[in-house]
Amino acid sequence: MIELIKHGIYLLDGKEVRTQASGLPTANEARENTITYQILRAHHDGAPTPNQFRIHFDAMMSHDITYVGIIQTARASGLKEFPLPYVLTNCHNSLCAVGGTINEDDHVFGLSAAKKYGGIYVPTNLAVIHQYAREMMVKCGSMILGSDSHTRYGALGTMGVGEGGGELVKQLLRNTWDISTPEVVLVWLEGTPRRGIGPHDVAISLTKAVFESGFVKNKVLEFAGPGVAGLSVDFRNGIDVMTTETTCLTSIWVTDEKVREHYELHRRPEGYRTLQPGKVAYYDAMIRLDLSTQESMIALPFHPSNAYTIHELQVQPESILRKVEEEARARYGEKVKVDLLSKIHDGGVWADQGIIAGCSGGTYENLSQAAAILQDQSCGNDYFNLSVFPQSIPVSVATTRNGINEELLEAGAVIKPAFCGPCFGAGDVPANNGFSIRHTTRNFPNREGSKPSQGQLSLIALMDARSIAATAANGGKLTAATDIEYTDTHEAYTYEPRIYERRVYNGYNRPQPTEELRYGPNIKDWPELFPMEENQLLELAAVIHDPVTTTDELIPSGETSSYRSNPLKLAEFALSRRVPEYVAHSQRIHSNDLDRRANKCPETLMRLLQQVGASPANTSYGSCVFANRPGDGSAREQAASCQKVLGGDANICYEYATKRYRSNCINWGIVPYTLDANVKFHWQPGDFIFVPGIRQAILNGKESIEALVITANGTQTPLTLHFAGLTTDERTILADGCLINHYAKNRKV
User: Fold this and answer.
1) Where do the domains of the chain lie, and which CATH numbers do they carry?
2) CA atoms within a 13 Å half-sphere pointing along the CA-CB vector of 592
3) pLDDT per residue over 675-700, tens digit each?
């Protein structure tokens, strides 16, 4: 079904794959003919460079978890107006029943900022962030930067990139997004999906094939091949948005008449142009995917790559589900009791909840297919329940007019507003030991909102909307949509533009400098953050040996989202569901460092500094997190900023799971150290790492340094730390202590 070709290939005229280079341009020459490089070159600031792009984006997107912090950071750095279209959507904190007025306070702040600086403001529940972009912001050949990791619009000809807020701040201050020239992987689609197969089935299979090996990590996926033509635009979007889970950098697709129709339908025909690779294009690797062989899939906890066909799970449920139970016990010990095997009864595996939602699930086509499957059926009146979230009001209007909502409601589904909540743990949290099947983007540990530290754990599996509907029709018994007969006779989607015309505030190019920003009591400025000292003394505050540590673990989502405008309050949740003692450890370390800065260095700290030949005047004292592979998942910069607010100065790992998280660490002044693969990290919280001369090493362009580990009992061990691949700007940002400090010194606005 999926074949990984690990060597370079040539694509001739967009049709013929060739492995031999005889008579063809060099790889570097032909790579310029990919759609990827055509778009990147068009957005590059400056003369062509052999190994770097400096990118200016055409537009930006943020939701209400992130835009307050981004705007506050940009203001502190000299922001005068938004220099590009910047959309502020409200699809995350719109239903969180936490914290009194703080959610709506953020929304009021967002509208006032859109007025003051010339932005675009999309009111609550009008659309989820990525659907609004698909409907109103994309253009073929353009680039959009978003503060959400699932910023992916490649199927519509727009290269979307999800990054932390610091990278959006750079664009607001007329600076660039700097990346090394990426490798490009051709995703060659063949065949046509069978009835019952949906985009999530394909996306889950793709993630399973490439995630663990890092086959496409930080590379661009370029989709082409004869199989593209047989896919609807909704189907393509559903695959594309999930490419984030492969850890690729971004994605782009060939465009065709179906994409043209999308732009015409949305009253923006000028946004379309044909995108095709040049006559001879070179790709660094290739993924061949035969859509005709695709099976109905399920991604079991705790990652989209933990995937099986539904038929595999039906045949051997005990052994497969037991593996999930074992992983839960390894992760949480005796804190929680997991009993997935209890879901096996009455001849099948039974779910407790089904959800179709968000940027991946709530498409018109998904809802239409789900309604067709559920027509004249019933979800039953037992534990299983089904919720549906159309991804925008225009989609909701179309599903209402065409009878889709009626059929879903009659079957027992509950239809809710456009909202991302089930995807990140704000609402619809299953019961303890509940098993939920979801057409959403992620199923990371506790992302759904459970709290293992309090003995709560629910379990999330990803499935396509079609198989969720088939399961609902069987009262919750897992069922592949390919195993049932149905026909979708609903009318094609029609778009209603008046919805946005009447409610969206569009102030782009019309800033109102005299407009006052409206602050709620929870919206706080960033605390003082300090430049880097000559030396670092780090104390380990958390040591995590899990194979991968997600951003959901570094800073949980769900109810914590309401505090994203209050850096100090939010920081109290850092690692709370994985290492509950981390915050207290970090606060103690930070307090001692503040005393050092006030010339009141604690005696124990003074003795330690004297032991390594350093002084309080030139050596910072900060916390440090070790994890094997941190940062998989969301673009949320708070995973790094919370560490910084708590006095974090560095992270140590073998590799960073994503560029996004590493960039976030750098922008917040956290040195992203790595270790050689053969070095065993056996130290514990409370042990120290002294890094002499780190400031000059970073500024002088070095990429490694000799450090010293000092255990709590006084044992000293040398340790080599690496910080390779830093740009010149990143080195100065680290030395300045964070992006805010950097711009305060070097204002360009």
Assistant:
1) 2-52+182-293 (3.40.1060.10), 59-175 (3.30.499.10), 297-493 (3.30.499.10), 535-745 (3.20.19.10)
2) 22
3) 999 999 999 999 999 999 999 999 99
